[in-house]
């Protein structure tokens, strides 16, 4: 029997749909309605998560900045052991989805998480205090020598994974040292593991438009076989498609919208932070030019990206000095005056989020 030919989707239509679903064409009225909060916006470096939310909402930037500290948004260590900004009400589902698949790993995480809860005792606790107090409460097999710290403590990856299951969030106002505090107001009950995992995969595929199992594995930081187990939970809801000659998958419920987005484009300008959800998945799909890929995805200190009319059109970095925010933009090609005006408006919103009272914007060649 001949396998049916997978539908061919245009790259521009896929990216237009991605921008639409990620609230980059028509921003959400309220920051809490930003759909990317369902999987989280990575907060690396600190402040990036809220910057990504700010780029997706019509709510004033200064108001967005107040939503994290005990508000409807939460900063927690989740996917790949990285800090993410999420909807507080949805943290329970993500916690259930990220329980390790291997029983032995799940038990180890649960043991360390229980010890963390005992140490915290319902109060804020610094990273050094938490780490040090765990040594007498966890098995030796959960600890190892750390060259950076010059001490024995819970393995770094295990420590990070356990904080979520210990019910600890990050204090957004403290970074040196990092401070954990008990999560409040999150919906933590009623989520089954398989159901939560399936929903997390649906959200990931929906936000990207098209993707593959290996891209899910990279995002989760899972081994290929583990990611495939999650993928299989929703396999019956997926359809194969072709984009740029490569086989990918989309939610069957999204296929018409992906086709209909052709030619729609993603109008306007956005300054997106490093590790933004728009950049997830196949890098060549989002940024075809390999030289530009190397500039965006670096070994350390990734820049933010300039999104203009549905394409990554450049890089940007910023520096805060007192109450002044310096924003340096490096376009890949010359920007029209209207686009430069849009960049200035975006820079002013970034400044409002950061609490700056003036902006110094420069365009580098």
UniProtKB/TrEMBL annotation:
InterPro entries for the chain: AlkZ-like
Protein name: Winged helix DNA-binding domain-containing protein
Source organism per UniProt: Actinomadura namibiensis
